Amino acid sequence: MLIASCPATDPELLSMIDAQQRELREADGGLDGQVTVTHQDIRYLVVVVDGRPVACGGLQALDPGTGEVKRMYVRPTHRGRGIGRHLLVALEELAFQAGHTRVCLETGTYLPAAIALYRSCGYAEIPVYGEYVDNPYSVCFAKWLPVAA
């Protein structure tokens, strides 16, 4: 397994983000909501297994101390193998290297596997924030990162 940086314009990354958005729409019953798929200020990572990208995630700075995990996705054929957990750790390392002391994220109440992953990785539920405030299906989490000695 290789985890590597990836440009926001990479076709494989865009394919996974599109698949993620389709799954989210299906999982939430097709609820309407404005979705911003890519941002130029998100730093993306891709997990490659046997030469094929199988997972992605991004990190966007919310403020100088806080990074937000965005677009976490593992292809269905590769779920249950710990890939999401490895990707999340890599995104936390990226946040730490960027000088963030905290990482936060949003997911949907209809994604119990994602919620379980975040909780098992040390994330605690926080009040919804930003663009998620008016979404009754949003649940947000945060984790404090270790401070460099």
CATH class assignment: Alpha Beta
Which regions are unreliable across 5 or more consecutive residues at pLDDT < 50? Answer: 32-37
Taken from the alpha-carbon principal axes, the silhouette is globular
Q: Which structural class do you get from the secondary structure elements? A: alpha+beta
Distance between the termini: 30 Å
Q: How many beta-strand runs? A: 7
H/E topology pattern: EHEEEHEHEE
CATH topology term? Aminopeptidase
Q: If helices are DSSP runs of H or I spanning 4 or more residues, what is the number of helices?
A: 3
Helix proportion range = 25-40%
* Integer-rounded radius of gyration: 15 Å
Number of structural units classed as domains: 1
**Main beta sheet strand tally, sense and closure:** 7 strands, mixed
Strand share of the residues? 25-35%
Mean pLDDT: 91
Protein name: GNAT family N-acetyltransferase
Organism: Micromonospora echinofusca
Domain N-acetyltransferase: 1-146
Keywords: Acyltransferase, Transferase
List the helices and strands and how they pair.
Blueprint lengths: L1 E5 L4 H17 L14 E8 L2 E12 L2 E9 L8 H15 L4 E7 L3 H9 L3 E3 L11 E7 L5
Parallel strand pairs: 4-5
Antiparallel strand pairs: 1-2, 2-3, 3-4, 5-7, 6-7
Explain the overall architecture:
- About 4% of the residues have low confidence.
- It is built from 3 helices and 7 strands.
- 28% of the residues lie in helices and 34% in strands.
- Strand 4, helix 2 and strand 5 form a beta-alpha-beta unit.
- The chain has a single domain, classed as Gcn5-related N-acetyltransferase (GNAT) (Aminopeptidase, 3-Layer(aba) Sandwich), CATH 3.40.630.
- The longest helix has 17 residues.
- It has a 7-stranded mixed sheet with strand order 1-2-3-4-5-7-6, sandwiched between helices.
- The protein is of the alpha+beta class and 149 residues long.
- It is globular and about 35 Å long.
